[in-house]
Write the structure tokens for this entry.
Amino acid sequence: MSRPSFPGALNGDDPDLTERQRQVFVAVVHTYGLTARPVGSEALAREHPIRLSAASIRAVLGELESMGLLERSHASAGRVPSPSGYRTFVRSELTPAPLPPELVREVEERLRRSTEDVEHLLAEASRVLSSLTEQLGLALTSTLDRESLAELELARLDDQRALLVLGVGGAAVRTLVLELDSPMDSAALDAVSAVLRERLLGCTLAVVRDRLAFDPVLVRDSAVRLVARAAAASWGVPGRMLQSSGADRMAAQPEFARGASLAPVLRMVESGPPLDRLLLDGVEGQSGVRVGLDEDRALVGLSLVSYPLPGTVRGGVGVLGPVRMDYARAFAAVDLVGTRVAELLGLGRPRVY
């Protein structure tokens, strides 16, 4: 497991808390994370092993508020951690929560079973992250149009179906199930495969897509034309692939009890920026925590734990949720899923026939 990475982690302005300030501060963060309600001194004295009276706890809460670590909506309300407080908490107190070995094995198996291509793998990664954290799971690859085609395999599935595997740098980034208009045997598909390799290997995926649809060389032979047209029809819409999962889990969070508060977040996920950039920011192959996003109004009050993927396939995985999310759990989950996805891509998988 990697160490957490934070934008501006080396912050000399972080307050130097006394032990009792630290105890009260951590207790407020944990309590608010569980209840999503302002925290008062009586609740802390009753529910946490803090050897202070309620009056002494109130005094410490005031000190923490003056430091900017806590805030409250009005004078009589309890306190909640501020975004600055959460950033301090994550930098100074975060210890990733180890996931049970049986859960780790289950995650690894789920990802291994989803290695048809990058798109399938990332879709499963987003589902796994959401189920592990109860937040919105995200997985992204930026467009692969500029990558050069390194491998091409064509295999028969049945009389009128074939599997076309397109590889970039050892990883099968697209697998297309081709619905053929006429039956083709394995010998015919082998001949077509040789023509496609000659015409397409070394081209960028953008050129490959265009040639499958329009290249006159590929329509001279009827068998090649049949496969090329089926491949063009199966390709789908080019561009980025941002997979998200867990909108229902986000909706269950108190912050999004009203549907109107969740809709802008989901629109932001659908449109991309700035989430695309945020998922790809940071050190490749290292989990990072970004607390209290402010890049767009829709993201205010949210945090992102992400893992930029290393290697040829540029992308990232992460979870998006309220600022009060369980960072220890989220970090452990993102680190595990990101590491395993990177391994599957780097090993020349995903690839299945």
